[in-house]
Design goal:
By secondary structure, the protein is an alpha+beta fold. It has a single domain, classed as HIT family, subunit A, CATH 3.30.428. Strands 1-2-3-5-4 form a 5-stranded antiparallel beta sheet, covered by helices on one side. The longest helix has 18 residues. The N and C termini lie far apart (46 Å).
Length: 121
């Protein structure tokens, strides 16, 4: 398999590892969209959200739980953070190995286009 993230899991490609255990690994995103931007991925290859099987539910829950641990470890869990799972090309997914974006370190308005609205949301 020619998967970039599987190669990171296998140690073939270096990454700045922030957290790892027997099920997931987390590393800094090389194109950060916030002061803190990490990717949390399962060690098991799952291509997209659409490919999560019934027996993967606990693994996906562990992925989200790991993101919370990392936010706490990095010191912004109390202020808040954003997690994002993109799915397929229209959803913005560019690497087809399930990955959760963990973004923090600054206030993030919702909706993202709020700054363009004339009236406050």
């Amino acid at each position: 398999m020619d998967c970039l993230f599987c190669k990171i899991v296998d140690g073939e490609i270096p990454a700045e590892i922030l957290y790892q255990d027997d099920q997931v690994i987390a590393f800094r995103d090389i194109n950060p969209q916030a002061p803190f931007h990490a990717l949390v991925i399962p060690r098991k290859h799952i291509a997209t959200v659409n490919d999560i099987a019934d027996n993967d539910r606990e693994l996906v829950g562990h992925l989200v739980q790991a993101a919370g641990k990392i936010a706490q470890q990095e010191g912004f869990s109390e202020d808040g953070f954003r997690t994002v799972l993109n799915c397929n090309s229209h959803g913005g997914q560019t690497v087809f190995h399930l990955h959760l974006h963990l973004l923090g370190g600054k206030p993030m308005g919702w909706p993202p286009y709020q700054e363009t609205l004339k009236t406050p949301v």
